[in-house]
């Protein structure tokens, strides 16, 4: 049995340091999660990438994040939470090689896709956790250590009864503020207006953060300082608007 096949059938084992497939039942129940693990099928290429490339780019979920050790250099650190298929993360890392990028994602097909892109582009300035971002921020990343945190198009959980699952809450934003250096930024984007308004209210309620992206409205211009996502372009074709927020740690 290959490593990739074992990963498909394994239960979580952070000590292995590989992105094993998990079900919601395997997750601790200490809080409401902002995601549901509906794992899509891995392509043969993604499965091969998880087997051969994960050791080069992946971090065990119980490993504290020390950028100097992980990347072998001192450089700004940008975290992307929930990077999806990783295309934006790969583009940002390719155009900004002097910055270290850390991606956090729970869905293995997206991780496999990103691994293939990192190999194709020959990038060495990206590392990945396959884990819940809140857990990683809480337990693995030191306070005042990040230069930026990006959250692009998180699950909007549009039904009112599911709003409690939305990631952006006062507790989450306090956690974000604690991890950012002075002058570090939090950049969020969504195509759900009511979620954008909720994000804005929560961010404005955090005294450690200030809105630096505001123009004629409290929101930043769409597409500011980032590549556009495949999800975003699809939404644009359907007539969806995008709301962006950029806040800085005081």
Roughly what is the average pLDDT, rounded to an integer? 86
Radius of gyration: 18 Å
Task: Label the structural class.
Answer: alpha/beta
Whole-number count of domains: 1
CATH-defined fold name: Rossmann fold
Spatial ordering of strands, largest sheet: 1-4-3-2-5-6-8-7
Distance between the termini: 52 Å
At CATH level 2, the architecture is 3-Layer(aba) Sandwich
Strand content: 15-25%
Supply the CATH class: Alpha Beta
> How many distinct beta strands?
8
Q: So what's the overall shape?
A: globular
Q: What characterizes the major β-sheet?
A: 8 strands, mixed
Question: How many helices?
Answer: 10
- At the fourth level of CATH, the homologous superfamily is Vaccinia Virus protein VP39
Account of the 3D structure:
This protein is of the alpha/beta class and 250 residues long. It has a single domain, classed as 3-Layer(aba) Sandwich (Rossmann fold). Helices cover 34% and strands 18% of the residues. It has helices at residues 3-9, 44-52, 54-57, 67-71, 87-95, 108-121, 133-139, 170-179, 193-204, 230-237; strands at residues 58-59, 77-81, 100-105, 126-130, 146-152, 180-190, 209-211, 243-249. The chain has an eight-stranded mixed β-sheet with strand order 1-4-3-2-5-6-8-7, with helices on both faces. Helix 1 packs across helix 2 (44-52). Mean pLDDT is 86; it is low at 1-17 and 23-30. This is tRNA (guanine-N(7)-)-methyltransferase. Catalyzes the formation of N(7)-methylguanine at position 46 (m7G46) in tRNA. S-adenosyl-L-methionine binds at residues 80, 105, 132, 155. It catalyses: guanosine(46) in tRNA + S-adenosyl-L-methionine = N(7)-methylguanosine(46) in tRNA + S-adenosyl-L-homocysteine.
């Amino acid at each position: 049995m290959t490593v990739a096949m074992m990963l498909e059938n394994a239960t979580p084992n952070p000590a292995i340091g590989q992105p094993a497939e998990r079900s919601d039942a395997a997750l601790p129940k200490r809080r409401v999660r902002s995601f549901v693990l509906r794992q899509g099928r891995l392509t043969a290429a993604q499965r091969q990438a998880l087997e051969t490339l994960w050791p080069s780019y992946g971090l065990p979920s119980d490993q504290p994040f020390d950028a100097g050790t992980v990347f072998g250099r001192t450089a700004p650190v940008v975290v992307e939470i929930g990077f999806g298929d990783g295309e934006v993360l790969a583009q940002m890392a390719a155009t900004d090689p002097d910055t270290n990028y850390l991606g956090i994602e729970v869905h293995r097909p997206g991780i496999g896709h990103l691994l293939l892109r990192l190999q194709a582009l020959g990038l060495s300035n990206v590392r990945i956790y396959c884990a819940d971002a809140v857990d990683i921020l809480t337990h693995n990343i030191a306070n005042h250590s990040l230069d930026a945190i990006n959250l692009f198009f998180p699950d909007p959980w549009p039904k009112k009864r599911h709003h409690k699952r939305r990631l952006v809450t006062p507790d989450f934003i306090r956690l974000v503020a604690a991890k950012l250096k002075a002058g570090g930024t939090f950049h969020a984007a969504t195509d759900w207006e009511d979620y954008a308004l909720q994000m804005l209210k929560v961010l404005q309620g955090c005294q450690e953060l200030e809105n630096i992206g505001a123009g004629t409205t409290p929101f930043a211009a769409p597409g500011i300082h980032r590549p556009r996502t495949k999800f975003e372009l699809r939404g644009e074709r359907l007539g969806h608007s995008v709301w962006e927020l950029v806040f800085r740690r005081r």
